[in-house]
Design a protein that fits this description.
Elements (H helix, E strand, L loop, with lengths): L5 E4 L12 E8 L2 E6 L25 E3 L3 E12 L9 E5 L2 E4 L12 E13 L3 H7 L3 E4 L14 H7 L15
Parallel strand pairs: 4-8
Antiparallel strand pairs: 1-2, 1-9, 2-3, 3-8, 5-7, 5-8, 6-7
Amino acid sequence: PTKGRLLLATPPLEDPNFDRAVVYVLEHHDEGALGLIINRPMDEELGEPLDAWIELQSTPSRIFAGGPVEPDALIALARTTGEVQPDEHLAPLNGEIASADLSADPTLMHGTISALRVFRGYSGWGPGQLDGEIEAGAWLVLDPEPDDLFSRQPDDLWRTVLRRQPGRLAWLADAPDD
């Protein structure tokens, strides 16, 4: 099971959308999988009508490219100050991680959200597709650290996650881009 875990792209994955991508898996079941690329900040900032969310946004305060599927969709991930209880504004995903409703008034969540990241688009796989890619060695499935989803240095996240792995797996962090 990969829900709540990280997928790190490996060289066998030839899709340029996922080159050195770190994906946080939101769902993975028989009908497919859904995740967000968490290490691709864009040059886009939150604007009207979402500028009220900027105060809760984590550094770097940018919209992130979540994946190639539905690039007009915006999805917000939030780290809460405690165990997430389902309500009309937050949908629990894993522990203190929730999906935040961007149509809600963000002032209602002050004190509840300690970090927020907004993604444009998402990454999706059909039934069995992600399982096949993992079996083929295209993805490493690793456990996240608490700060991975809201890293202040997302451009370095792929290497950072690999460096903390035991044994030879950590060596991949120094692999050249080509």
